[in-house]
């Protein structure tokens, strides 16, 4: 049965190649934003995301091995026990050893997955010794932010419309007022919804928090590298759901303190909304 072996080998090579491509795609992605033809997740830039990333890679290895094993078993069975090679089938209906194995091995695999999964959930859940707090509120269809520890800075953040976009700005991702955060600082993030359910998601930082009306959800972030990290609302929240992006600018602690002083003056009077958004809201 030489062609059988060749076929099985080709299938294994194909699956392994796909797995390697998926991991390579992760390594090639740029910081903080999606790329054309990107494969895999964005490069991690926070401790939570690093962990999510390595957990994803562990799952990728496990799922690849399981898939190769099941595919090999299927191909072997189809060829070895086909009618012409096996005209009088066996009438065996039980095999205690096999039954114990095919119950125990999947349980062991699930436990191997569950342990790092629960550790990660608890790690991401609450900030240990947070140094500052950012309050986020989801609105139809923009975000508003509050820095209570920095003299109560408050501002709204709207998407830059296609008609106003400048060269270099990312379409559907750039906003008028970015969230500014200091790098290397543990930031507690409190998220709520002002009208309907939204979700505040920034992939490169491993952030995804539901913005529920009447409830405050918590998460935390410590941005490792300065840069701009983009995200979007990822809970369908109405007609402009796709047009309420998030942009986080991570800067050094000195630059952050400078920004705080400027922001106190800049956002002293808030409430001005771009005409496009105001019109959409009253529609
Ligand atoms: Cu939304």
Textual characterization of the structure:
Mean pLDDT is 87; it is low at 24-30. A hairpin with a 2-residue loop joins β1 (132-139) and β2 (142-147). The strands form two sheets. This protein has a five-stranded mixed β-sheet with strand order 3-2-1-5-8. The chain starts with a helix and ends with a helix. The protein folds into two domains: 2-81 and 97-125, Helix Hairpins (Orthogonal Bundle), CATH 1.10.287.90; 132-282, Sandwich (Immunoglobulin-like). The protein is built from five helices and ten strands. 40% of the residues lie in helices and 20% in strands. The protein has helices at residues 2-28, 47-80, 96-125, 253-266, 275-282, and strands spanning 132-139, 142-147, 153-157, 179-182, 187-193, 198-202, 207-211, 217-221, 227-233, 246-251. The protein is an alpha+beta fold. Bound molecules: copper (II) ion (CU).
Give a topology summary.
Blueprint lengths: L1 H27 L18 H34 L15 H30 L6 E8 L2 E6 L5 E5 L21 E4 L4 E7 L4 E5 L4 E5 L5 E5 L5 E7 L12 E6 L1 H14 L8 H8 L1
Parallel strand pairs: 1-5, 4-10
Antiparallel strand pairs: 1-2, 2-3, 5-8, 6-7, 6-9, 9-10
The chain binds copper (II) ion.
Copper (II) ion (CU) binds next to loops.
